[in-house]
Amino acid sequence: MRALWLMPLLCGSVSAAAADFRSMTVSHDGDVYRVDAQIYLAAPPAEVYQVLVDYSHLTRISSSVVRSSVVQRLDDGALVFTDTRICALLICRHLRELQRLTETSPQDLASVVVPQPGSNVKSCSGSLHVQADGDGTLLVWQLSIEPGFWIPPLIGPALVVHSLKAEGRRSADGIERLARERAQLP
Fold this sequence. Notes:
- Helix content is 19%, strand content 48%.
- The protein has helices at residues 45-52, 156-182; strands spanning 20-29, 32-41, 65-74, 77-88, 91-105, 108-114, 121-133, 136-147.
- It has an eight-stranded antiparallel sheet, with helices on one face.
- The protein has 186 residues and is of the alpha+beta class.
- A hairpin with a 2-residue loop joins β7 (121-133) and β8.
- The two termini are 29 Å apart.
């Protein structure tokens, strides 16, 4: 998911206790990239979830998120437009997409890109699961994305994988920082 918006998928300040990636794999099959991660955040689950569903303020999670705006509120979530700037070496792209974000429980959030003119993402879907883990939160993140622009075949996939990992780490740190602020933790 955005979780591509999370990358928002995910460049905030790093908290005193940076997010701990227990596992993270980024792979690709053809033009489709997949992220699977388990991240420990030193913040309460309720506050982590509130940060994730604050769709109008996703720019606070990471400076890579240039814009986020709620297009329409839905009974179980929202339609949210995001513009995220992702860079690999000196090459930067803006991922512009309309996402349908579905809140399936106070612990689960799913997203799928809604096709529309002007979007440069062919397909994207993801999920986030928030659960208590000791004094903090385990965030389980899954993302599948197919960019709608050309990626050079030799070095391009490696650059995309590197960008997804780096942005995932920045976003996790941003989510943790904002959740700790909400919980009034140092």
